[in-house]
Design brief:
Elements: E1 38-44, H1 52-68, E2 72-78, H2 80-83, H3 90-106, E3 114-118, H4 124-133, H5 138-142, H6 145-151, H7 160-174, E4 180-182, H8 188-205, E5 213-215, H9 250-258, H10 276-288, H11 293-299, H12 305-330, H13 335-362
Parallel strand pairs: 1-2, 2-3, 4-5
Helix pairs in contact: 3-12, 4-7, 4-13, 7-8, 9-12, 10-12
The structure holds tryptophanyl-5'AMP.
Tryptophanyl-5'AMP (TYM) is lined by residues 41-45, 53-54, 56-58, 79, 82, 169, 172-173, 181, 183-184, 186-187, 221-223, 232-233.
Length: 368
């Protein structure tokens, strides 16, 4: 083919071919590992103190995943905006926010690996929350079982945010393009809604959000009340014997387990329908030890409930003791503030980029 418009050089220098090397070195192709970076997001509401249910269903999972997932960036936060969906005392809330932060570290989260931050310090959460409210329908919100359960206890009136808070939760997750969201069973419905909102937005405005997957513990996704084992263990329950707090006195923890409701059958067997109390205690035991529920049924085949409960009490105390020790070391340390400041900074960087993209897709402001 003729080249057009390019002048050939008038004189061409003769280039000497280099002599072939005597020994040819093997060509080593560089191994290029694909960097698959994923994101994990989760949070805990700082209303009251954290329970053993929070630990088994969430915190313990975060720590396990932190050690297992190498290619994943973690964003774990204190969901303080979610706390004000119901009335809170200002001083108590302040205390609880710091307490949850310290418990994250005390339970084993490594701030070198995990971005820990306070939700309200990253303003983009509330901004995207509003956009998620503008993506969701009221009917979807009204169907949320947590809303239906919680609204009946609101003596001063039901705050609008109690209804719309799953939109904020969706924003918490979608801001960071989370692939994985470790949560207990009670948050499943909120995650499903998050997935629907992400898909709805993507369909309407083009690919914007990653559709996240939930990650649920194999055992312990729903730890039950010690006094009413058909209900979830909850920090807001009236009877303090129904829950174990991570910061409860160790003697009190032993007593709470000893007085946990069981049945008159006397057999240590996992039967959710007929023996919910024992099934719950077996679940707690298996979650905190190397034993499976099957192993435990065998181990306690010939034992009475008192022996089983005594052993379980020691397992729980052994799990909680080191957490409390670390907690009291860190709670008043300014290092905790440094960790939260650094975490919020990193979170803000990613969240602001995402929010800008969303505004642009929606045609908000003057962003081109
Ligand atoms: P919250 O604060 O009620 O609970 C925090 C985490 O603990 C789990 N959990 C339990 N797991 C097993 N057994 C129990 N009895 C038990 N009680 C609580 C919860 O499932 C949860 O994983 N809306 C959330 C906080 C949140 C969030 C988010 C979570 C806000 N934004 C984004 C994940 C991603 C809540 O109120 O969780």
């Amino acid at each position: 083919m003729k080249s057009v418009g390019i002048d050939k050089p008038k004189t061409l220098k003769k280039v000497e071919k280099p002599a072939a090397p005597l020994i040819t070195e093997p060509v080593v192709e560089p191994v290029v590992k694909p960097v698959v970076k994923k994101t994990l997001v989760s949070g805990i509401k700082p209303t009251g103190q954290l329970t053993l249910g929070n630990y088994i269903g969430a915190l313990k999972q975060f720590v396990m995943l932190q050690d297992e997932l190498e290619d994943t960036e973690f964003f774990i936060f204190i969901a303080d905006l979610h706390a004000i969906t119901t009335p809170q005392d200002r001083q108590e809330l302040k205390k609880n926010i710091r307490s949850v932060a310290a418990l994250y570290i005390a339970c084993g989260l490594n701030p070198e690996k995990v971005n820990l931050f306070i939700q309200s310090e990253v303003a983009e959460h509330a901004a995207l929350g509003y956009i998620m409210e503008s993506t969701a329908y009221i009917g979807e919100m009204e169907r949320m079982t947590q809303y239906k359960d919680k609204k009946v206890n609101q003596v001063e009136g039901v705050r609008t945010s109690l209804l719309t808070y799953p939109a904020l939760m969706a924003a918490d997750i979608l801001l960071y393009d989370a692939n994985v969201v470790p949560i207990g069973d009670d948050q499943k419905q909120h995650l499903e809604l998050t997935r629907n909102l992400a898909m709805r937005f993507n369909n309407a405005y083009g690919e914007t959000f990653v559709v996240p997957e939930g990650f649920f513990p194999k055992t312990g996704a729903r730890i039950k009340s010690l006094t009413e084992p058909l209900k979830k263990m909850e920090k807001s329950a009236e009877n303090p014997k129904s829950y174990i707090l991570l910061l409860d006195d160790l003697g009190l923890i032993r007593n709470k387990i000893k007085s946990a409701v069981t049945d008159s059958d006397g057999v240590v067997k996992f039967d959710l329908k007929n023996k919910p109390g024992i099934a719950n205690l077996l679940t707690i035991y298996a979650s905190l030890s190397e034993y499976s529920i099957k192993d435990l049924e065998k181990k306690y085949e010939k034992s009475n409930y008192a022996t089983f409960k005594e052993d379980l009490a020691e397992v729980v105390v052994d799990a909680i003791r080191p957490i409390q020790k670390k907690y009291f070391e860190i709670i008043n340390d300014s290092k905790l503030d440094d960790i939260l400041t650094a975490g919020a900074e990193r979170a803000r960087l990613l969240a602001s980029r995402k929010l800008l993209k969303v505004y642009k897709k929606l045609g908000l402001g003057r962003i081109r």
